[in-house]
Amino acid sequence: MAEHDPIQVRGLNHFFGAGEARKQVVFDINLTIAAGSLTILMGPSGSGKTTLLTLIGALRDVQDGSVGVLANELNGADETALVHLRQRLGFIFQAHNLHESLTATQNVLMGLQVHGKGNAAKQRKAAHHMLGLLGLSDRRDYMPGNLSGGQKQRVAVARALVPNPEIVLADEPTAALDKASGHTVVALLKSLGQSRGTTTVMVTHDPRILEMADRIITLEDGRIVADITPQN
Ligand SMILES: Nc1ncnc2c1ncn2[C@@H]1O[C@H](COP(=O)(O)OP(=O)(O)OP(=O)(O)O)[C@@H](O)[C@H]1O
What we know:
ABC transporter DevA-family ATP-binding protein, 4-stranded antiparallel beta sheet, ABC_transpr_LolD-like, nucleotide-binding, Rossmann fold, 31% helix, 10 strands, transport, binds adenosine-5'-triphosphate, globular, ATP binding
């Protein structure tokens, strides 16, 4: 598997349920995603976007086909390999799951402490820097209960990005954000793609950010029905 394409999906099928209730929700997906790119997954509700994203993120077992992520084959991979791989990924999901008893900075630090990266002073500096990039410098000592929904979402984004993940997987990361904040988040992901080679795959219904994507993939009934690169 070539190291330079961080995500390589081949002949991927996925099913939910068992027996009579067994239902196929992903059909023969083939997809190669380039390093440093920002890809948007769109499509109607129930089209399989979240299922595909969680399969790529090693958050559910690959049943049939091949999912290659950062040169790891996920089909048949053991749990130790999956745990190790997940530490190289950043997840931004809608339910932001901030710790209510920790400040914004402490929540962001949780993203680093899992990885044990750097000493405490360096970690704090990195957390403050990332909160600053997301426009939250004046909120860094606030508890989540005193932040708006959009501010909480940006803290969750900071927590996902601060350990410098190689791939960011995001499920509707701008849904709770106003236009300016949504733009800030996506512009940051795009600039990390350019400066660090971070690869982002994002599920979104948000038409405001489509123009910022390198690639837009549309799913319908578990199949890719369109795959475009807007600049061309
Ligand atoms: N845990 C599950 N058990 C059974 N069926 C599921 C499960 N998760 C998802 N599905 C079904 O799989 C299909 C794809 O769901 P998925 O969540 O991937 O779609 P989606 O495109 O992300 O939708 P949305 O935009 O509403 O989030 C849907 O028909 C859904 O009902």
